[in-house]
Amino acid sequence: MVFRLNKFKECLVFLLICQFYPAGAQPGIWKEMKKVYPDESAIYLNRNKIITLDTEGELVTATATVEEKILFLKDRPDNATDMVVYGSHFQEIENLKAFTSVWDKTKYREIPLSGLTRQQEGNSSIFFDDSYFYRLSFPAGHEGNQASWSYSEVYRDARFLTSFYFQSFLPQLSGLLVLRVPKNIEINWQIVNDPEKRIKFRMYEKNGYRNYEWKAEHIPKVKWEDNSPSGTYHIPIVLFQVAELNVAGEAKSILANLSDLHKWYFQFIEPILEDPNPDLIEEVKNLVKPGDTELEIVRKVFYWVQDNIRYIAFEDGMRGFVPHKPSYVFEKRYGDCKDVTSLIVGMLKSIGIRSYFTWVGSRDIAFQYSNLPSPAVDNHMIATYISPSNEYFFLDGAGDHSPFGYPSAMIQGKEALIVFDDTSFEIKKIPEIDASLNRKIDTVYLSISTDGLTGVGKAYLTGFQKVSASYDLNKTSTVKEKENLELWIRKGNNKFVLHQYEIKNLSDKDSPLMLDYSFSIHDYITYIDSEIYVNLNLEKIYNNQLINFNRKLPIENDYKFSTHNCYILNIPDGYELEYVPDNSSLKTGVLDFSVTYHHINSTVVVDFKIANSTLLLTADQFDEWNKVVHHLGRTYKESIILKRKSS
Predict the structure, then answer these.
(1) What is the pLDDT of residue 480?
(2) Which residues of the chain have pLDDT under 70?
């Protein structure tokens, strides 16, 4: 929702902001903001960041000054009294100051925060992380009081400066970003996700610097919705990078284009391009069998790395960017995405097969290299193998269950930066895997029992459906394994009972995952006089999952998928088929389904197919989605009717 003040309120708020909230004026803005934001516990009065670029020889450095202030609109606003300031090896935090301003009759009394200690960031998915934080716990978080903090950020390399987000978890009256740029430095910048043009830009000169200023006022808080993509898709952001530096009259390109980004990134991998050691060479030789094609060798190396190298993330200074050498990873048997990529490249190199270090961003990042030559685009590394027939294979060794020929689900549709050598590279879009390749086929034979249905099923899962199920089923306890398996085969109602099951091909990445199982569903059948009613829509995918017409953000899916369920019901002795629902189908290209009924001898066969063909369902597709879900809902209510034969 767009927040707009009437003319009087705009003037009042602007006056208060510009006068930096003099002592006697504070209750005025507090009362006014309570009227404007009656449901909010706090708001930002301002979020300001001023970045000054400088040079050290041919290196561009940066220092930023950050100032933020919050006004509490309610007592004990839990979402605003605890704030966090983050730092790392590349972005050191200095001069941190924070205080609470408590209104005392006619003026504010400042209570400084003491004991601000640097704490290590903890993350269960990261073995070592050099990032740290300061927690700011503001006392006296009562309505009318304020929390203020300021600090400096010192960047070791201005190429790591990438963006400023103009929206936060609280509404804010003012947001400001200023880049103070010496005249011998050129920058590139762009604004994204700002259709209402909230962010205003101006440029001016002051004290020998060109000042690039972006400012926004009356900014609503970020509104998250279920299954929405990351903020890079919808939060107003200013993206910027240092493009060029003039040194002694000579222009030196920094991050003006993709060639600059490639040149910089190549420095990270050049030191590890070693000749493989004898042990690594011997391991690869043991994998290769006479007559193996090059593609078969690549497949074997990829699977060996998946099965033998434990993924452990590292964030330790430049270790966040520079992989270990292949021999080191081979010896230690663990590493992060860069390390497993290094090992894949090194193992293939040992047998004369070329593959390439490749940078890519996960789908959490909306940006692509083609419109932003910046480290803001990527957060992941894989290897790329290009076959003699020019087919691209994206090898993500960090994924334990990914089949050869598939990228990992999280990088589908993203642009990859493939580095061939110090002078050449390629931008290649990673394909989105079609729904038909991420398939679940489930065939179930059903019988009517005295208190419900019994069944025997066989399910086949391929592609990302198999990958997802494999994570659920691999290396779990027997109890957890059964619980997770039920998530994939549960049918009917909450009285579904799984009896026996067998899992096949869990470790065979090239074969479908096979699930054999038997089950019963109690109290599922309705008897009325001489008739039996059976709803054979046992897996009601997307039932009632209508998208609210007020929704604004897209809906993100992990992968496209298709499901094909075939239910075969034996008609019990003494009964005959009286009613079969009409066949039903609807195809929109967003969500497609079909249901067909067949009467074959003494059985009723229901064939159900559904396919979700979107990774990111956007607002212009919501109506199509709802149309299919409405149709599905009517279809799911249909039952067959069996009638006792007349004597």
Answers:
(1) 92
(2) 1-28, 121-129, 314-320, 647
Supply the pLDDT for residue 27: 61
d(CA 350, CA 341): 14
At the top level of CATH, the class of 259-429 is alpha beta
511: DSSP letter: S
Residue 87 pairs in a beta bridge with 132
**Tokens read off for 513:** 């995952």
**pLDDT value at residue 129:** 60
Bridge partner residues of 481 (DSSP)? none
CA angle (363, 3, 547) in 5-degree steps: 45
251, 206 Cβ separation under 8 angstroms: no
Look at residue 121 in the predicted model and tell me its pLDDT: 64
pLDDT per position as a tens digit, 504-515: 999 999 999 999
Domain ranges of the chain: 7-253, 259-429, 435-644
- C-alpha pair distances (Å), 481 with each of 90, 163, 400, 473: 43, 43, 18, 5
Domain boundaries 435-644, CATH class: mainly beta
Tens digit of each residue's pLDDT (9 = 90 or more) over 585-611 = 999 999 999 999 999 999 999 999 999
The distance of Cα 42 from the centroid of its chain, to the nearest Å, equals 28
- For tokens 């083609």, what's the residue? 370
H or E stretch including 485? helix 478-489
Measured between alpha carbons, how far is residue 9 from residues 2, 73, 197 in Å?
15, 17, 21
- Dist. CA 476–CA 101, nearest whole Å: 52
- Report the distance separating Cα 334 and Cα 409, nearest Å: 22
Q: Roughly what angle, to the nearest 10 degrees, separates helices 337-349 and 278-287?
A: 80
Hey, which bits of 462-583 come out as E strands?
496-504, 513-522, 526-528, 531-534, 555-556, 561-570, 575-579
Torsion sign across C-alpha atoms 136, 140, 141, 146: negative
Q: What is the pLDDT of residue 120?
A: 80
Q: Judging by beta carbons within 10 Å of its beta carbon (0-12, 13-18, 19+), is residue 522 exposed, middle or buried?
A: middle
Tokens of 5: 């003040």
Nearest Cα neighbor of 239 from 187, 182, 172, 195 is 187
Tokens of 74: 């309610």
Three-state DSSP class for residue 81: coil
Strands 334-335 vs 310-311: parallel, antiparallel or unpaired: parallel
Res 126: pLDDT: 46
CATH code: domain 7-253 is 2.60.40.3140
- Which amino acid, one-letter code, is at 135? R
Output the pTM of the full model. 0.89
Instruction: Answer yes or no: same fold for 7-253 and 435-644.
Output: no
Q: How far apart are CA 425 and CA 356, in angstroms?
A: 10
